């Protein structure tokens, strides 16, 4: 049976790259984006037939409910849900606003919650499926200067860990993706000051990982059924340093914090 894949944020970046990889396996892909023209362009570029271009705002309950109803009407089920849509932010605690916190958490964390709550029941009923949540190295790194973004992505990691345990033995698996910097258009919607945006863009441009390489590693790991996916070249090394040498890691983060407070991002 043709697999049915839904990917939020499929109009660009990692979401679009994953859409292409699933389509090449013969799956039907629902390309979901906030902008209809990007969703349609993504759908039109995919290999094969039966794909969908859908518009939804992961930060809005009614919009996500409408997306769920459309999938039920079109496909009556789902095999893989990729909660990928999100926005970025940057700045220390002093300098962030409550408006920023609410927006980042509502999209980057609660957007994942909405996807899981709406589409998990149909997977449980079928006793099969996989939920893929896109977090970030920021969700593991505890790095200064990306306060609201790091907290939201850490929440996605925690949500995925808890959900994995809840679903054990149900036939539904969970994967969480934690890439580091690589070239995407994430800065287009980022809530971030100009100097921090330039720094983040420079880090993305300098990345040794291409978007295709990140997507290939993520796709292979999802297909294997891996849980925690660290697809960037340096990410596994950084993760090991944090786990095995926490004092060394913290001192590095403290030095980074001094540089951040010396040149605030907001």
UniProtKB/TrEMBL annotation:
InterPro entries referenced in this protein's UniProt entry, alphabetically: NAD(P)-bd_dom_sf, Sc_DH/Rdtase_CS, SDR_fam
Keyword Thylakoid: no
UniProt xrefs under PROSITE patterns: ADH_SHORT
Residues spanning the signal sequence: none
Keyword Oxidoreductase found: yes
Keyword vocabulary terms for this entry: Oxidoreductase
Family: Belongs to the short-chain dehydrogenases/reductases (SDR) family.
Name used for this protein in its record: SDR family NAD(P)-dependent oxidoreductase
Organism from which the protein derives: Lysobacter brunescens
